[in-house]
Write a structure and sequence with these properties.
Blueprint: H1 7-24, H2 41-54, E1 57-62, H3 72-80, H4 86-97, E2 100-101, E3 107-108, H5 121-140, E4 145-149, E5 152-157, H6 160-176, E6 188-191, E7 206-208, E8 211-219, E9 225-233, H7 235-248, H8 258-276, H9 282-302, H10 310-315, E10 321-322, E11 330-331
Antiparallel strand pairs: 1-5, 1-6, 2-3, 4-5, 7-8, 8-9, 10-11
Helix pairs in contact: 1-4, 3-4, 3-5, 7-9
Length: 347
């Protein structure tokens, strides 16, 4: 559940985050990527992909109700370890223990958890997980690599026996840290099956940060093919993209110009391309083709001379193909009018 702080609280939380972050940022583990400066989810995915090529087994870890079950005493203890300013401890304790106001105005007391949506919550979560997981992993399993983005974690193991041992140890460790529990359905041991690793196992794929890692067909520069363990946009993320494209109902907005539609949807499409198009972009193109379909129907609805002439619409270039997306050919609305030149460049 997302928490909506008041304006005064949001300002104060931002101030505390600005003061506390420089004190703890240098202590965080290099494989912690969530909500940190100069680090992103794409960095975590790139490192995870390379390590999956080297390690045969993965423990895909998800904590059940992480933000709802954070232990307040342990969080305050971690904050007090890095600052002696009483006003920071005072306000952090107030924000953690502030009651939740429901729709009817009823106040519900909270004894654990940190509401998502606040400016200080990501920093508190990273500080808690640094001691609960990152530092503990470095001491207990120094040769086992991992990537963590907030409460989503991927641990790389060399053997199946090691994967089971690490999973059990992590589950016991989280129980000791305020009674946190691994999600029974989302936490699993995965075998990185590809063209060279041809063994069989119950799970041969996992999803991390909106990408699904599994065996995929890869083309080399020489034109040959092989099967590698690579990430691509997950089915859930692709389904959300297609649902949002349908919700735009572009084919019914014949009163708008192509430039108007471009100004509205291009920032969203550009964000999809920048994130989900980083690895194996051909899977993303399958979902973005729906934009071409709706724009073609929009053109046939708007211009009488194009009705019932589907191929003519495509030849006239009403739907543009973006050549600026690293040469990969992503869907993009150029925003030109019917009388403009047939430029193939994104504008």
């Amino acid at each position: 559940m997302l928490g909506v702080p008041t304006v005064a609280d949001r300002i104060a939380q931002t101030v505390v985050a600005m003061v506390l972050e420089p004190e703890v940022e240098s202590l965080f583990h290099p494989d912690s990527y969530g909500y940190r400066p100069r680090r992103s989810a794409l960095d975590a995915l790139a490192v995870c992909r390379e390590r999956c090529w080297r390690s045969d087994w993965v423990v895909d870890i998800d904590i059940r109700g992480f933000f709802d079950n954070l232990d307040h005493d342990l969080v305050l203890k971690a904050v007090a370890h890095h600052t002696d300013q009483r006003w920071i401890l005072l306000y952090v304790e107030r924000w953690l223990k502030a009651p939740l106001q429901q729709d009817g105005g009823v106040l519900v007391a909270r004894d654990r958890g940190s509401p998502q949506g606040s400016a200080i919550s990501p920093l508190l979560a990273n500080l808690f997980m640094h001691y609960a997981f990152d530092a503990w992993m470095s001491r207990t399993f120094p040769v086992v690599a991992f990537e963590r983005y907030c409460d989503d974690m991927v641990v790389h193991c060399r053997t199946e026996v090691e994967a089971h041992r690490v999973r059990q140890a992590i589950g016991e460790r989280l129980v000791q840290c305020g009674g946190l529990q691994l999600h029974p359905d989302k936490t699993r041991i995965v075998y990185c099956r590809d063209g060279k690793r041809r063994g069989s196992y119950e799970h041969t794929s996992f999803t991390f940060l909106g990408y699904t890692f599994r065996s995929r067909k890869v083309r080399t520069r020489s034109g040959s093919y092989f099967f590698g363990f690579n990430p691509a946009i997950s089915d859930e993320a692709a389904k959300r993209i297609r649902a949002q494209i349908r919700s735009w109902r572009l084919h019914l907005r014949s009163g708008s110009s192509l430039a108007d539609l471009a100004r509205e949807i291009n920032p969203i499409v550009r964000g999809w391309i920048n994130y989900y198009g980083r690895f194996y972009p051909s899977e993303l193109v399958k979902s973005l083709k729906g934009i071409n379909h709706y724009l073609m129907r929009w053109a046939m609805q708007k211009y009488k001379r194009l009705r019932r002439r589907r191929m003519r619409v495509m030849r006239r270039g009403r739907v543009r193909r973006c050549s600026g997306w690293r040469g990969r050919g992503g869907t993009h609305v150029a925003g030109d009018t019917p009388s403009s030149p047939r430029s193939r460049r994104c504008r």
